[in-house]
Amino acid sequence: MTRPSKPLSKLSESATQRLNGYALAAGAAGVGVLALAHPVGAKIVYTPAHVKIVPNHGEIFFDLNHDGVNDFGFYAHTARTTSGFLGFLDVGPARLRQGDAVLSIQNGRHACAAALAKGARVGPPRPFNSNNVVMAFVSSSAGGKSTAFCPWVGLTKSAYLGLKFAIMGKTHFGWARVGGGFLTGYAYETIPGKSINAGQTREEDETAPETGTLGGLARGAR
Known about the structure:
mainly beta; 41% strand; five-stranded antiparallel beta sheet; single chain
């Protein structure tokens, strides 16, 4: 699916405050992110967040490792058409940088961002896609015909994106949690090439199953 062309824009900074050597995450597309990372020396850096993914408001970026450079971004779009409704949500690398990618699955002929359960492993040899990949797509027509695909459609609990990105040419793995139309947290493993479990916030985590809610894009649009 071809997404509307648009220039990439830098994330506007809404707060800058240091605690234990890590910065609060920058705001995305005018929406503030209040984020606190683990102290220096931690092998996994976790950032809690509360960023609303707003349709038709441009790309919503986030910076996994707090180096001031956006790593990934969401793009949501909804529209009333002459024949019905169209809506989609996708995610992908914020810039063209070798090694940045989203863990994906194949849904028929569509490449989709995987909706991982808490505890799922993110790392090799799982498949990653360096393009923008769809999380949810829905469309309907006045005649009652509807189309929906990708695993985030109608999801009723929080789920995790698996992420791969480069720091100084080294591959690192991470995750981002999405629920209720919000980005609610993200983390990455500081040891290059080492896998991380979805939802893991420290090295000794056992990442028990999680419950929660996710307001799907399609359901919210309806």
